[in-house]
Amino acid sequence: MSSARPVPFLKGHGTENDFVIIPDPDGEFELSKEAVARLCDRRAGIGGDGLLRAVRSARHPEARGMAGEAEWFMDYRNSDGSIAEMCGNGVRVFARHLVRAGLAPAGELAVATRAGIRRVRLAADGGGVTVGMGRAALPAGDVRVTVGDRTWPARHVNVGNPHAVAFVDDLAAAGPLREAPGVAPAAAYPQGVNVEFVVDRGPRHVALRVYERGSGETRSCGTGACAVMVAAARRDGADPSADGNPVTYTVDVPGGRLVISEGTDGGIEMTGPAVIVAEGMLDPDLLAV
Ligand SMILES: N[C@@H](CCC[C@H](N)C(=O)O)C(=O)O
Prior knowledge:
The chain contains 4 helices and 18 strands. The protein is mainly beta.
């Protein structure tokens, strides 16, 4: 242990997509890729699908321009230490942490992310958390997802981060997902991609498995669930901005359930749980890797 002070951390999850949270209001910590991977390691660290660093927007170069609207910046990292634009489950957990720690009032709060500002609604005493996830973009062009000798057509959906959504007959058909599925054409996703496999469960009710860029298969992905909702709505002929009616889908993930709506302005809202399960102190050497 070095002479540096221990560093506070928390652990939380949203539909079992789990995160290490590092409060860093003044942006003091240089978190290397290696340090994040170590913290997210389930044996050598705390363990998590990703890491959320809570920095005041005014103290982070990527968020300074949003500081007037959003006091806090969610610096999100995948478990391999790579940076991502946005995390839908993470932003709910992030908001839960801020309110629980008295750093933001319950009600509506704006969070700065690399994909822009996200507005989150939550009560002080727990319950579901609702996030305005912005609009989805659906770039044209055919995309295909391959696992072993199976290939499925997929829909390219961007909800701040990139997704390939494949409708399948059976979630087990994707196999154990120990490796990233193949996605073609690679040029469609120059920064890599998150892949969702989806089955129908009933009218406007789907279930998914996800292989996340930078984290592998996880128990849930909030942005992935939003991408799936939009892909399912378009497949089902529902386009709220063209039809004038909002559309709501229930999206089951291995770790729980998310409810997702697309409004007539194209804005997506996601509601789901956000739980803090532990807090403690880290050996500062872990951050210095
Ligand atoms: N689990 C997240 C998504 C995290 C980022 C993703 N792996 C990426 O690299 O884009 C979610 O809940 O949205």
